[in-house]
Amino acid sequence: MSANLASFLYLVSGVLFIMALRGLSHPTTSRKGNLYGMAGMAIAIVTTLVYATPSFNGFVLIVAGIALGGGIGAVIARRIAMTAMPQLVAAFHSLVGLAAVMVAAAAMYAPESFGIGTVGAIHAQALVEMSLGVAIGAITFTGSIIAFLKLDGRMSGKPILLPMRHIVNAGLAIALVVLIVLLVTTQSTTVFWMIVAASLVLGVLIIVPIGGADMPVVVSMLNSYSGWAAAGIGFTLGNLALIITGALVGSSGAILSYIMCKGMNRSFISVILGGFGGETAAASDDGIERTVKQGSADDAAYLMANAQKVIIVPGYGMAVAQAQHAVRELADKLKEAGVEVKYAIHPVAGRMPGHMNVLLAEAQVPYDEVFELEDINSEFAQADVAYVIGANDVTNPAARDDKASPIYGMPILEVDKARTCLFVKRSLGSGYAGIDNTLFYKDGTMMLLGDAKKMTDDIVKAMEH
């Protein structure tokens, strides 16, 4: 295969990746977007195998690696629960970062194979690209591992606030710049591994102080990092497809992080510096009596059957209980009774972007019934019932009313403005942000304590009687 043909095919795969992102931007076109992405990746892999593989043995090794990795991926995809998707994404990001480090190391020790010079005489431009790729890759690797441990419950979701952490992080960042300059001037493998070590430590220190409330932003931020790491290594390899793909992933992840920070009223810089999330809230002086009104499935069925408008607010609790199909059945029952039903989605509901949208789409909830926060918040005041199913932090009035709260200023779904708020939750425990939800104690709130799926099923049964 000629270089021109390979470049053309890489360009085709890049266009398909762009079309994939365009398709994935809306649930109705997401399947088609996935197909575009798969086709683009297939073209890129086949082109690389035919054009860049130096020998038959190399071809066999690469195919064996693809088969092994693909087999592991297929098993994980079949076994993984939707509730574990955020930590799976974080784990996969770590592998992208590690791959960037390994490719950079290979280029450092065998530059002739990459066409970037010889040992001790690597082109300066390639060294800069390699340095950036390995630094971002190493940060992504350890940062993603910490995010995985936090999301999977193997490490506390609360922030670990190290003394002088900002000064230490700034010092490491400056050290990285100095080390990159030294690598370009000396081409020392010792300096190369010093860059790797400093980046690995920085990845841990960046993510450890970030609390649970900001973990969805962390996932999208690490997604962006992995893309830039891939793009940097793409320049080292001279691979057009990798450059395009990395740039697309990096830029889209950065844009998504910005959108999510805006949805949480967070400063992106403050989030990545570990300045928010998971702190203990100060005592609230909102005058709310700390008593809870607890109801049953029969009570909820009566209220919803006699309502004119019900807004359903899904959250992580729905994902844990796999209650999306029961929620869809409840909505169908209400619509049969002439009740208007809508769904309200917060930008950071769940633990990764689009988590709730995917679950509702899986349950075949009509897309035109699902609304984002800014489109539906004004309708809660006209709703008879807000049915909150495991959405804790994103419905907490403290974000609006309590200036002492660590989530103050974050836009919330104003479910407390509905005539009645039915809140399904296993217990009165705090959400992932680690703070109490004052909504539980409001006069218009009825707590439905129990498993979200069982409670919703019981409400449906009660409506049939």
Structure explained in plain terms:
- It is a single chain.
- By secondary structure, this protein is an alpha/beta fold.
- It has 2 domains: 3-272, no CATH class; 297-464, 3-Layer(aba) Sandwich (Rossmann fold), CATH 3.40.50.
- The chain is built from 17 helices and 8 strands.
- It has a 6-stranded parallel β-sheet. A two-stranded antiparallel ribbon has the order 1-2.
- Helix 5 packs antiparallel against helix 6 and helix 5 runs antiparallel to helix 8 (215-237).
- The radius of gyration is 25 Å and the shape is elongated.
- It starts with a helix and ends with a helix.
Total number of beta strands: 8
Give the strand order, joined by hyphens, for the main sheet: 5-4-3-6-7-8
Q: Order of SSEs, N→C?
A: HHHHEEHHHHHHHEHHEHEHEHEEH
Give the integer mean of the pLDDT values. Answer: 86
Query: Strand portion, in percent?
Result: 5-15%
